[in-house]
Amino acid sequence: LAMGANSSRSTLDEALSPENAAPTGGDPRAARLYKWVSAQKDWAPAAASVVAEIYDQNEDSAGSSPEYYLEIDSSISILIGDETRMSFVPRKRRATFVAEGIWALSFNTSDGFERFKSQYEDALWANVNGMAATAENREAAVASYGAFAGFMGGYDDEGVEWEVDEPNGPAPGEGEDEEGEIRDTRAGGRSGTTPSQLQMGAMNNSYLLREGTMDVYRNAEGGVEDMQISVDIKDGAGAFITPKKSMMMRGEADLMLLSPEESRRTQMYQMDVEAGKVISTWAFQQEGVDVSISDIHADSKDAQLDAGHSTFLGLDARRIARFDTRVKEGLVQDLTSPTALKWDNGHNYSKGYKFKCMATTGDGDIVVGSEDGKVSCYTGHVLRQAKTTFPSLGNPITHIDVTFDGKWILATCDDYLLILSTTCRNKKEELSTGFKTQMASQIAAPRMLRLLPSDSLLAGSAPLQKARFSWITEQGKQERWIVATCGKYSVLWNFRRVKSATAPGTGNRTFNEYHMVPKQENVVESAFVHDRFLSRNLDDQLVVATESGDVYSTAGA
């Protein structure tokens, strides 16, 4: 188990121990400098005491745009920019960055850390925007965003709502980086094609989907157990189906499957999990015309548990719709001829839309992530127009999730995760969410979850994928954890610590304290067990599937 990362902790944390504190009367800006040694996967001391200087190379050139550099001793001189990948850990008074290698500054005092952090952020803003980071310039730069000025400018407007589970945040010590005993048990696995998806169930079983087959696991306390059953997935003509997206319905008796194959993009396959075979082939249609669908999702967080629920959501690049699996009385379904799904409601959007992924809340509100980086919130059955749309920060959204109560959105980008708060007040000054109320100027600035550069390197610079909250299906309970995959790692963030540490007034917009759980091969998917299968005193229990098809029950972050 690593904590941003395990191998980086011992050396850097030693520098922050009381016996190594800065001597009285020393320069408050002083810091210790460390360099990441890839061969040893550890930090090595580079200088016992340095002062990080930030200066504008064009300060004396009239009419020239700012060009700020970071200079440390004689070792480092680099133009400040996004490629520097500066990461701050306020609680540790630590800054990690890239400059022909990976470096870390461990500051002796909080004042020195805060001063450097402020100067660096101003310098970065100046280099990106081509002007000094004065209050006037900042205001002018974001004015064009109107109501989204705070969101794009990285600050919270006065009065934004921010909900934390407990008034004072997590209990003392919770989520700290002390070593915990990691419980990692291989639940099963067998040779075969590379898995495409781990479909977790909240009732009896969960499923590992592969090309043409499905491995069955029984849900158990703290994880899953291998039932030693593999089922072929074939259509009515006996041809194998490659499932890429799946969804459980009707009390988890049925598994709905989508295939990325071009010839199957307008069809969905219904598998009876008890019988272990496809029993229906469905056609996505609007007014009798076949339409393509690239993603399917349950109507709400708990819809898959309802045996009588018949509708679900479908998404394509410019289409969002709700379909109904009920058929006309007396209609006999033929496996070799798809049955048309009823188009319940939906909307086809213009060419400017690039929908990619979606998720639903406990009461059926919908959040959609786009390739252009926008995140849109829809109210229940109103699919024609989003109630609130968060602007793009420039990176595609590859996966999205939302809490049961709809107050928090988690969007996955390759290099970071976005945390978006939807809490706001309606016209009656009552608490609401961006799914029910247009947020406008009430939108809080986005928070980011990032890996430290050393940990990104440790993970082979792999992208973050499929981030999700811990899994609950009941009102009144709170999601406690976030997990994402990254190369050979599952990365866990304590969500309560994220909310507390980045709340308005803290000055923090990026959070990079986390646990990394390694595997010997790439992780295909990491998913939380449903809260009914959690062991006592453990709420971070995962099921992890690797590219070879091995499945693990993991907990203990």
3D structure, described in words:
The protein is mainly beta and 557 residues long. It has 6 helices and 42 strands. The strands form 11 sheets. A 5-stranded antiparallel β-sheet has the order 2-1-8-7-6. It has a 5-stranded mixed β-sheet with strand order 14-15-16-17-23, with no helix packed on it. A 5-stranded mixed β-sheet has the order 29-30-31-34-38, with no helix packed on it. A hairpin with a 5-residue loop joins strand 29 (399-402) and strand 30 (408-412). It is globular.
Q: Which structural class best describes the helix and strand composition?
A: mainly beta
Distance between the termini: 7 Å
How much is the radius of gyration in Å?
25 Å
Helix content: 10-25%
Question: Strand percentage, roughly?
Answer: 35-45%
**Low confidence ranges:** 1-11, 21-25, 167-179
Number of helical elements: 6
Mean pLDDT: 87
- For this structure, the quaternary state is single chain
Dominant shape: globular
Biggest pleated sheet: 5 strands, antiparallel
How many individual β-strands?
42
Give the strand order, joined by hyphens, for the main sheet. 2-1-8-7-6
